């Protein structure tokens, strides 16, 4: 037992003395979170930016502009220069630019049968945003026409809102950052460290002592669980202070998934360390395995948005289950037992990987 604690403390000291390890395990994830969170953290809804040039200035035109302003999906800006507005439209400052022509109010008062045409400009190079803008604007104009004609619908929609969580991209990102840290620290870290110790003869000297392999592995696990727990706590504190990210679920469930993820990726790291001939080859092998998982495992992008032909492959990746489980626990507050597919998959990766690692592990 004494050897176990000594090895655990020695491993933690190694982490603390290596500045590169501290940077890439503690500071880099926080810097990444701050960078992405500052730019995309509040991107929870969609707003159409619209510029209106009112050449008429009548009460009817003011009423039309007021209708647009009441729509929460439209951000209205009023200018007088059409050319300047079109230049800003080309730079994607606006999704649509609309002109209200002179005589708009008089045409409505005269009750003419011919509809009044409102020129609406959109950027053809940004088709998705432009089509969304045109749809919202057309719906608002159509409602104005119906109000003028006293249109009475035969079939009506009865809107019933469902209250949902007020989540932004930062709430999606933070659990992914925690999952990314666990993967990098354990899969990449274990592979590089164990292969380096083997090359320097440290593992051979350990084998020559009375130290048991189980004691050595247990100390590695304990040290890395402590490190990952402190990392996750630090990231959550920073996210809470700066972006008001909350943990809506159980902290115990969150810690359990951190431990499960640590063990699963440690086991994969031991496999890579056993296959690698030297530290120089361990790094590229670990990078080859981890790099695709960063983009396919739901760290930065939702898994459901990925192509269907990738879904079967994505759904077996350990990081996809880890990031989803952390996200469900933090954002939704889902209980640990309801997330059984995720912890069962992580446990399966842990069991199979440690079995393979026991076959491929070499002391020298």
From TrEMBL:
Subcellular location: Membrane
UniProt keyword terms in alphabetical order: Membrane, Transmembrane, Transmembrane helix
Membrane-spanning segments: 21-40, 172-197, 225-245, 251-273, 285-303, 340-358
Xref: Gene3D superfamilies: abc type-2 transporter like domain
Residues of the ABC transmembrane type-2 domain: 134-364
Membrane topology: Multi-pass membrane protein
InterPro entries: ABC-2_transporter, ABC2_TM, ABC2_TM_bact-type
Main location as per UniProt: membrane
Record's protein name: ABC transporter permease
Organism: Halobacillus salinarum
């Amino acid at each position: 037992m004494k050897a176990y604690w000594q090895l655990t403390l020695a491993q933690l000291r190694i982490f603390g003395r290596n500045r590169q390890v501290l940077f890439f395990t503690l500071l880099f994830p926080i810097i990444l979170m701050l960078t992405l969170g500052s730019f995309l953290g509040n991107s929870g809804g969609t707003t159409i930016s619209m510029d209106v040039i009112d050449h008429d200035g009548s009460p009817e035109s003011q009423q039309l502009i007021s209708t647009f302003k009441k729509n929460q999906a439209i951000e209205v800006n009023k200018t007088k220069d059409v050319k300047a507005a079109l230049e800003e439209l080309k730079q994607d400052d606006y999704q649509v630019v609309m002109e209200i022509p002179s005589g708009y109010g008089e045409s409505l008062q005269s009750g003419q049968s011919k509809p009044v045409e409102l020129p609406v400009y959109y950027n053809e190079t940004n088709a998705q945003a432009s089509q969304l803008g045109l749809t919202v604007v057309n719906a608002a104009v159509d409602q104005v026409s119906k109000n003028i004609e006293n249109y009475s619908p035969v079939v009506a929609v009865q809107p019933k809102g469902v209250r949902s969580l007020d989540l932004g991209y930062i709430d999606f990102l933070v659990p992914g950052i925690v999952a990314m840290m666990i993967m990098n620290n354990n899969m990449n870290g274990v592979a590089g460290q164990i292969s380096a110790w083997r090359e320097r003869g440290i593992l051979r000297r350990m084998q020559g002592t009375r130290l048991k392999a189980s004691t050595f592995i247990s100390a590695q696990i304990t040290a890395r669980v402590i490190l990952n727990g402190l990392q996750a706590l630090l990231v959550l504190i920073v996210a809470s202070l700066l972006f008001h990210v909350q943990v809506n679920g159980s902290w115990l469930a969150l810690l359990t998934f951190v431990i499960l993820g640590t063990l699963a990726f440690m086991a994969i790291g031991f496999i890579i360390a056993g296959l690698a001939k030297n530290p120089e080859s361990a790094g590229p092998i670990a990078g080859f395995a981890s790099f695709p998982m960063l983009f396919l495992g739901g760290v930065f992008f939702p898994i459901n948005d990925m192509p269907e032909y990738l879904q079967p492959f994505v759904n077996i990746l350990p990081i996809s289950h880890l990031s989803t489980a952390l996200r469900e626990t933090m954002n939704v507050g889902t209980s640990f037992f309801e997330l059984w597919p995720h912890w069962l998959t992580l446990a399966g990766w842990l069991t199979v990987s440690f079995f393979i690692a026991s076959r491929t592990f070499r002391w020298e």
